Amino acid sequence: KQRLMPNAPSFCDTAICAHAHWFIYATSNPSLESFRDDYFKMMLMSMIPPDKAHQKNLILMILKLKLVVEAEFACFMCLLRNMLQKKLKESHGNRCCQFIHDGCTLDNKLKYQAFGLQFTHKKYQTNHVVALTFER
After folding, report:
1. Do 133 and 117 contact (CB within 8 A), yes or no?
2. What is the CB neighbour count within 10 angstroms for residue 136?
3. pTM of the model
4. Distance between CA atoms of 60 and 34, rounded to whole angstroms?
5. Concatenated DSSP letters for 79-112?
6. 84-120 burial by CB neighbour count: b if 16+ within 10 A, else e?
């Protein structure tokens, strides 16, 4: 069956990405065990339209989740690398960013050491900070 937009992602691709993005970016910090929970799987299955229910692999499993997380991180690294190369070119090889660190306490009262990269946007004259890691 031909799709109306041949390059558009399939329903399965969209569902897998939605599951992965929920795991990666949710503020509730979901557990990896959620993907093994039968009730969680039943909840996801109930959201799949009846005409798509026959498709396989609509629910993300842990092995595939790890691959998607690695791919998302690779995209982040590629975008960060491109941004830094652009900043180096704009600054003609001079220092263009600053590595910053600071102690912070999150809402859950746990203390972390935060590390980031700070640079300015030439066109808009704004400050950008990219959080790189939090360590306990």
Report:
1. no
2. 6
3. 0.68
4. 11
5. HHHHHHHHHHHHTTTS---EEEEEEEE-TTS-EE
6. eeebeeeeeeeebbeeeeeeeeeeeeeeeebebbebe
Give the model confidence (pLDDT) of 79-119 as tens digits: 999 988 988 898 888 888 899 999 988 888 888 898 999 98
Angle at 120 between CA 118 and CA 124, to 5 degrees: 145
Sign of the CA dihedral 35, 28, 21, 53? positive
Residue 8 per-residue DSSP state: S
**C-alpha to C-alpha distance for 59 and 31, rounded to whole angstroms:** 16
